[in-house]
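Could you help me review a protein record that somebody else here produced? My question to you is simply how this chain folds and whether the C-alpha cells agree. Thanks in advance; the entry in question is below:
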Amino acid sequence: MRLLLRYSFTLLAAGTVCYVGFLGMPRLAAQARAADSKPQPDVLILIDDERVVGRFVGSSGGSLSFKSDLLGDLTADWSKVKSLQAQGQYAVLGKDLKLRVHADTSNIPQGSLEVAGQTITVRPAGGGSPRTIAVGDAAQVIDQAAFQREVEPPHTSLVRAWTGAITAGASLVQATQQSRTFTGAVNLIRAIPIESNLPARNRTTFNFAVSDGRVLQPNTPTIKTEIVHADAERDQYLNESRVFAFGQLAYDHNFSQGLTLQQNYGGGIGWTAIKRPNETLDVKGSIGYIHQEFSNASQNQSLVASNFGEGFLRKFGGATFTEQLTLTPTWNNLNSWLASANAALNLPVYKRFAFTISMSDGYLHNPSPGFRKNSFQASMGLTYSLK
C-alpha cells in the first residue's frame, strides 16, 4: 500500500510540472517575440570612426541632434559624420520648401534614414523606391509623426503644445522682527508649429508674477509689499514671414507705487529679427488704451498710449537667459508715461528643475504723491519646466 501511494504521488508531481511548464510556454514565447520586436538602436559613426549608439533626434541646417545611451544629448556637425543608420521614420525638408497647413506632402521624402558620403537616403516605410538628398540641401530632418501633426493639426489644438515654467521662492525671518516674503511666477507659451525649425504660424503667451512681503515689529505698523502682474498676448504670423500681428492685454497692481490696478489693452505689429534654435529676438509696437486706478482716487485716469518693446532669449550650455524691455508713451497726458524691464537667468539643477535669478523694474513717471517712481525687485527661486 505504501509503495502504491509513493508511486501515485510521483506521477501527480510529474504531471503538475508538465502542466505548469505547458502553461508557461506561451508566456516564454511571447517574451521572446517581444525581445525580437524591440526597436534596434540608431548608430552614428563619426569621421574618426567613433561609434555612438542611441537615437537620432533630427537636424537643422548644418548640425544634427543625437541622444546617446551613455552620453545623453549630443550635437554634431554633418561634416563630422561618416555614416548614420536611423530606424525611426523621418521627413527630410529641403531648403526651398514652403510648408503650409494641409499642404501636399507626397513629394517630401519620408521614411527610415541612411547617411553615407554626405548623402541622405530615405527608404519609405511601405516600400517603393528610395530617395536621396544631399546633406547640404536638407534644411531640416524631423520626426515623421511630429511633421504630420504640424501639417494636419488636430481640431483640439488649443489644448496642446503648451510649454513653460513655474517658479517659486520664499524667505522667513523670525526674531524681534518677523519677515515673510513670497515670490512666484507662471510663464506659459504655445508656439505653432511645435517644431521650431518650421515656419512660425502663431504664438500665444501668458505670464503671471506675484511678490508679496510682510514685515511685522512690535508697536509698529505692518510694512507691506505687494506687486502683481499678469499679461497675455496672441501673435499671428503673416504669410510665413517673420512679421506678425498681435493683440495684448496686461494687468498690474503695485502697492509700493500706490497703484491699485492698471489695465493695458492694445494691438500692433511685430517682427522676429533673429530666429535661431538657441536665440530669438522680437521687436514690436502697438497702440492701445490704459486705465489707471490709484489709492488716491483723484489721480485715476484713462490714457491713449503706445507700447514699444523687445524680447530676447538665448540658450547656452543648458542655461537660458531671457530679457524684455517696454516703453509706453501716453499721448493725451505726456507726463504719465511708463516703462518696464525684466531679465531672468535659468541654471539647470536636476532634470526639469532649475535655479532662477530674476530682476524686474517698473517705472511710473506720475505715481501717487509720496511714492517713488521706480519699483525694483530681485529674486531667486526654484523653477520647474513643464516641458
Remarks:
- The chain has a mean pLDDT of 85.
- Residues 355 and 382 are 5 Å apart (CA to CA).
- Residues 158-385 form a domain with the Porin fold (CATH 2.40.160.40).
